[in-house]
Amino acid sequence: MRAGLKSFTPAIRYWNPPGLPSALIVSATRTPAKAASFNPTPILAQVLFCVLLTGGVLATGRARLAGIVFWGALGLILVRQFVWGGSLKVLCLLIGTAPFINLLRGFALYNIVILLFVAALTYHMISRPGEMRLIWRKASLLKPMFVCIAAFYALSLFNTRDYSVNLRLFELALTLMVLLILGQNPVALGTALTANLVSAWVVGFSLLSQMNSSSVARLGMIVMDGQTLGNPIQLGLPLAFGFLALIIDRGYWLNLQHRPVLRYCMLVPTLPLLALTTSRSAWLVAAGGIMVTFLAGKKQRIIMLMTIALGFLAFQAVLLSPYGKSLKKGLDRTFSERRTASQRTSGRSDQWRVSYYAFTESPVTMLIGHGPGRGAEVYADYSHEVGGVKYAVGKKVALHSLFMQVAVEAGCLGLSLLGLWLFLIFIRITRQTLLHRAMLPLACYFGYLFVVITVSGNDVNSGILLGLALLGSMVVPAQTTKRQAMRVQLEGRARLNHKTAFSAT
After folding, report:
1. Which residue intervals define the domain O-antigen ligase-related in the entry (predicted)?
2. pLDDT score at 14
């Protein structure tokens, strides 16, 4: 790569900054050999085979059989890739089928996500040890994050003697690593993210028939033998992320920057399904991403305005469809004046009140909290003492926000560490956004913040959001001076002018 362009991140390196001269754009965006050698078609075909087969069974309401089919098909595909494929393809398959993995994990081991990701990352570390070391050097903010997660989980295990408490923190961390690895190859990253969106479509369409049931009024859940599987936010977040990836940066992160018609066609199933999940967190991620891009992305404001109009039309179309009642119920659940604040927030307002009460109990609890892993126990103990609380009084329930959990379990010390880490990421992403004008990492960063305000965010979907944000913050220090960089730009313009003059003659 030419001097002056060495500060590009692995993923953003192939992004076409509108401000660069054309000659430099060609030089900076030349597809590397490892990206050119990755063929996305077999991966997409295998994901489609797995999810379409499972979705067909799931549409009949036989979730247990769908789980058997899915894990059997995915297992065969993964074994084949482990033996004859490659570690990068295994990682693509895991991200691509994540919506089905989250939905049907109960029919395997609940913690199978961690086992699969650990196995895939171990395989990749053995196959490409140099690449892993390079990522660790570039993503300097990963090390303190992994140290804090390991320490927090160890203290949780010590306090509760329950290995499952806060174990899902590792889902987030492992997904981050997978995204950063895929980010070294733009084609592989785009393949995995596109497959993830397609899998979310199949989950949504296969569960539409369940919305006719009186027990299920939201897309993303299925009731079988009195047991509810799935969660609207598990389906809503991949749809919201896919929606943003389609409209921001011209679909570059999905390898669709040269296919505008296909991108807009892909919005047709994405928007109605996102609306029918009635997931307020997913809606907030989508709306927040549009707003961030509109404010910070000057070149993309017209597209954002068109997207807002398209989203309004999609909402109206869903309201007029047979599924309009379900969407109207979701809107009333959040905005109806007849419902209390606790009802509109699904008990979150009560949890915030109890958490604040427990947090301010003493200077010690304000400083270091009640101890990692004790959030549910603290809520059960203190919910009796706060007047007006009606949500799960006296019961051990998980706290519905990462900030809430950290405040109760780790106090100001934990909040300070979390806030500092997020602030450093924001500074780096903002710097890269101003330099390269790629907006999706910044939109995903705020999307992650919106998610962890409302839920804990310790899952694969949140890991994808934060992982793409981290891709936008990975910086290799520039090895050139400003004078050298200016010389490269002048050389590029000179070549472009020479080529234009030669063509004219």
Report:
1. 270-418
2. 41
Which of 466, 374, 428 has its CA nearest to residue 145? 466
Alpha-helical runs (H) found in 336-439: 341-344, 348-359, 363-368, 375-382, 402-436
Q: Which amino acid is at 24?
A: L
Residues with Cβ within 8 Å of 271's Cβ and at least 6 positions away in sequence, in order, are: 243, 310, 311, 314
pTM: 0.86
Count the Cβ atoms, other than its own, within 10 Å of residue 452.
24
Nearest to 334 by CA among 382, 278, 285: 278
For residue 50, pLDDT over 50 is answered with yes
Helices 87-96 & 112-127 angle (0-180, nearest 10): 160
Among 253, 285, 247, 279, which Cα is nearest to 266's? 247
User: Which residues partner with 230 through β-bridges?
Assistant: 221
Residues 199, 202, 208, 209, CA torsion sign = negative
Q: pLDDT tens across 374-427, in order?
A: 999 999 999 988 888 888 888 888 888 999 999 999 999 999 999 999 999 999
Phi-psi bin for 127: left (phi > 0), alpha (psi -120 to 50), beta?
alpha
Residue ranges per structural domain of the chain: 31-334+400-474
Could you tell me if residue 222 is left (phi over 0), alpha (psi between -120 and 50 degrees) or otherwise beta?
A: beta
Beta-carbon neighbour count of residue 450 at 10 Å?
Answer: 23
User: What are the tokens at 294?
Assistant: 């509109």
